[in-house]
Amino acid sequence: MRPAHMALAALVAAVWGVNFTVIEIGLGHFPPLLFSALRFLVAALPAVFLVGRPKVAWRWVLAVGLVLGVAKFGLLFVGMDAGMPAGLSSLVLQIQAVFTALIAAVALGERPTRIRLLGMLVALAGIAVAAADEGTTGPLAAFALVVAAAACWGLSNVLTRKAAPPDALNFMVWVSTVPVLPLLALSLLLEGPSRDYDALRALDWQGAGTVVYVAWVTTVFGFGAWGWLLRRHPASTVAPFSLLVPVFGMTSAALFLGEPVSGLRWCAAALLVGGVALTSLAPARRRGTGNSARRPRPAEEDSALVGSAAGE
C-alpha cells in the first residue's frame, strides 16, 4: 500500500474514532433517538439521488437498515445518553468482532480456528476488565446497552456479508434511508413530541455541525474512502487500520471531553484490540472442508469488511 493510501486509511479510522466524541456533543443538543434519525436522514439526502439504484436485493437493504440503523445505533445513542463515556463506547463496540464470529458460525457454517477462539477469549477478557472499570465510575445499564449494540452490529455484519454489496458507499447510503421513519416514530413515542420540537427549535450551529459530521463525514466520506481503498487493495491489508478506531476514540474523548482514562481502561483496550485483531484477521474454516479454510471470494471479503466498519 502506498504511503498516501495508508494515510487515507488512518484518516478514515481517525474520522470514525472522533465520531464518538461528536456523538457525545450532539447528545447535548438532541434526544438520542431523534439524533440518530437525523443522522440517517442527512446521510441519505441528497446522496441517495447521486449513487444510483441499490446494487443488492431490497431485502438486504431493509434487513441491514433495521438491524444496523434502528437497533444498533438506537441502542448506542441511548446508551451513551444514559452515561456511557464516548471513549469507552468506541472501545466496547469492538466486541462486535466476537459477535460476528459467533453468529457466522451458526448462520454461515464458519468454524472458528483455534486462533480465532483465542481472540474471542482475549476480547471477552477485555470486556470484563472494561465492565469492572465502568462499574466503579458509571452506570452498568448504559454499558450493557452498548454491548447489546455491538451484538446487533455483529448480526448486521453477517447480513452484509450475505448481501455482498459490490459498492460500499451505494449500499450504506441506501441502508441509511431505512431507519429514518422507524427512529422518528420511536422518538415521538418514547422521547415525546415536545422534547423533539424543543430540540429542533433550539438548533444552533454546534448541533447542526454534529449532525453533518456524523452523517456526511463519517458515512459519505468515510465509506466512500474505505470503499475506494478496498477496490485497490486486499481487504486483509485495509482491515488492520480499523483497529485504530478505539485509539482515536479514547484519545479524542480525553482531549475534547476531558474523559479520564484509567489504568484498567488501558488494560481493557489492549486486551480488546488484541483479541479483535486475532478474531477479525484469522481465517475461519467452513464445515466439511477439514482444517483448510475456504478463501472467500473478493465480494464476500470486502462486504464483510464493509459490515465491520459500518458501525462507526
Low-pLDDT windows of residues = 289-295
Strand content: under 5%
Instruction: Give me the side-by-side strand order of the main sheet.
Output: 1-2
Mean pLDDT: 87
Helix/strand order: HHHHHEHHHHHHHHHEH
Task: Enumerate how many helices there are, as a single number.
Answer: 15
Quantity of strands, as a count = 2
Task: Tell me the overall shape.
Answer: globular
| Main sheet specs | 2 strands, antiparallel
Question: In terms of structural class, how would the helical and strand content be classed?
Answer: mainly alpha
First-residue to last-residue Cα separation: 23 Å
Can you give the helix content as a percent range? over 70%
Compute the gyration radius: what is it?
A: 18 Å
Question: What characteristics describe this protein?
Answer:
2% strand; globular
Task: Explain how this protein is built.
The protein has 312 residues and is mainly alpha-helical. It has 15 helices and two strands. Strands 1-2 form a two-stranded antiparallel ribbon. 52% of the residues are buried.
Brief account:
The chain is mainly α and 312 residues long. It has helices spanning 3-26, 32-44, 58-81, 86-92, 96-107, 114-135, 140-163, 168-177, 180-191, 193-201, 205-232, 235-238, 245-256, 263-281, 298-309, and strands spanning 110-112, 284-286.
Q: Topology of this protein?
A:
Elements: H1 3-26, H2 32-44, H3 58-81, H4 86-92, H5 96-107, E1 110-112, H6 114-135, H7 140-163, H8 168-177, H9 180-191, H10 193-201, H11 205-232, H12 235-238, H13 245-256, H14 263-281, E2 284-286, H15 298-309
Antiparallel strand pairs: 1-2
Helix pairs in contact: 1-4, 1-11, 1-13, 2-3, 2-8, 2-9, 2-11, 3-7, 3-8, 4-13, 5-7, 6-14, 7-15, 8-11, 9-10
